[in-house]
Structure formats: C-alpha cells, structure tokens
Design brief:
Blueprint: E1 5-9, H1 12-18, E2 35-42, E3 48-54, H2 70-77, E4 84-88, E5 96-102, E6 108-116, H3 126-129, H4 141-145, E7 150-158, E8 161-174, E9 177-189, E10 193-201, H5 209-215, H6 218-235
C-alpha cells in the first residue's frame, strides 16, 4: 500500500475550533452549503486534490427539544458530503447511524450515531466518564491485552462547547490473526439526545503500528470526528 501524505488545511470555522497547525489556505466554498474546510492530500506522484470536511456555521451545537421526529431522522440519514461515500445503517427506529468512507487511500471512516438518552444523559464532566466500561466497546480484547496499546479518555472542546473524547491505537497478532485500531471518538449530548462520532483508520492492515500512525495521525482523526460532529449538531435541531 502506498503511503499518502495528508496535510490538513482548515477553513476559518475549523481553524478557530480545531487548532490545526500551519497557515490556513483560503478556498472558495463548495456548492454543498454544509461543507467548507478541506484536507489537501498529495500523493507520491505529486497528484493532489482536496478532501472537503463538513462543518456547521461555527456556533455551538444546537439543542434538541426531545426525541427526534421521524422527519428529522430521515433528514439526518440522508445527509451527504463531497469526498465521502455515505452508507446509512439499518438500526433501531429511534437511532441514526451513518458510515462515511473516504474514496481514496489511505481510507478513513467516520461513523455518526445519534440516539435519545436512555433515562438521563451523562453530564459532560470528565470524572463522570473516565471509568465507563462502554468507552472501550470499540477496543477488541486482543488489543486490550496488548502491552503497547494506547487508550486515553479526555475532555475536548468544539465551538466553545465541552465534549468527551477517547483515542485508541494498537496492533496485536494472535493465532486468530492481527487486530489493529487507530480510532478517535467524540461524545456529546444536550440533555435529550446523544451523539457519538468515530473517526478511524479503515484501510488494509499496516505493516507496523508506526506505519498506521503515519497514515492516520491522531490529529487527522480528531479533525475528521469534529467536522462531522459540527455538521450533525447543527443539522439535528429544527
């Protein structure tokens, strides 16, 4: 697999909220009104194009007012963004799950999951989240047992709003095969509904853990997750 170098170039709203490194490059807004920032991707043969990241309008997440209507869930399942292949998943009627895949290499995936809070949303305070077992749902048992697996829980911010995030990276080979994960997850709720956005490396097995990190650095996965979180938390309220 050829290595592709990705340099994130943030638009104004993303640059202010995400803290990307380097000088932002001005780009005309694409036709899709819900997109606005890009990732310039350059291959070994110097061919390049821009992967446009979705975003909202730069304001804090909009607040929902109870369970989402069927019309709103249909709208959210139908959202599309340039540069990403959308694949809505069949789930419970009260849940929205959509996978977004990049079209070129290395392949990344963003998964958006929206559900009503079960009984009460967990306050977005780090001590309430640090020891929740469900935060490791995406970490396979083989990776949990590997000594060099990294798993972190922290607090982050998007457009002045506190959110919870996790980051995991690891690679483990057993008799059953090789498991690998390079995954950033962002969590938010507004007291009525909760949303989880997963940004992950979703390409072929890398030769080494270090190669995987070069193909999909944590910062790229964080920007990916924040971009979809921004877009969906602007779109999920009437």
């Amino acid at each position: 697999m050829s290595v592709v170098n990705r340099t994130l170039v943030c638009g104004l709203a993303l640059f202010a909220g995400f803290g990307c490194k380097g000088k932002p490059t001005h780009r005309e807004a694409p036709a899709n009104a819900e997109s606005g920032s890009g990732s310039a991707r350059t291959t070994a043969n110097t061919d390049s194009h821009t992967l446009v990241l979705p975003r909202g309008d730069g304001t804090p997440p909009k607040r929902t007012k109870g369970p989402l209507s069927d019309e709103m869930k249909t709208k959210l399942r139908a959202l599309t963004f340039p540069g990403f292949e959308a694949a809505p998943q069949n789930t419970r009627a009260d849940t929205v799950v959509v996978d977004f895949h990049t079209g070129d290499r290395p392949k990344l995936k963003a998964t958006v999951q929206i559900q009503p809070c079960d009984s009460a949303c967990i306050p977005l305070e780090l001590p309430r989240w640090e020891h929740l077992d469900q935060l490791k749902d995406l970490l396979h048992a083989d990776l949990r047992a590997a000594k060099d697996t990294t798993f972190e829980v922290g607090a982050n911010e998007l457009n002045g709003t506190t959110m919870i995030d996790t980051y995991q990276v690891g690679m483990a080979t057993t008799d059953a095969g090789t498991r690998y994960s390079d995954t950033y997850v962002l969590y938010y709720n507004d007291g009525s509904n909760k949303i989880r956005v997963v940004g992950m490396y979703a390409d072929n097995k890398p030769d080494t853990r270090e190669q995987m990190l070069k193909l999909a650095p944590k910062e790229d996965l964080e920007h990916l997750a924040k971009a979809f979180m921004d877009a969906y938390t602007q779109a999920w309220a009437d």
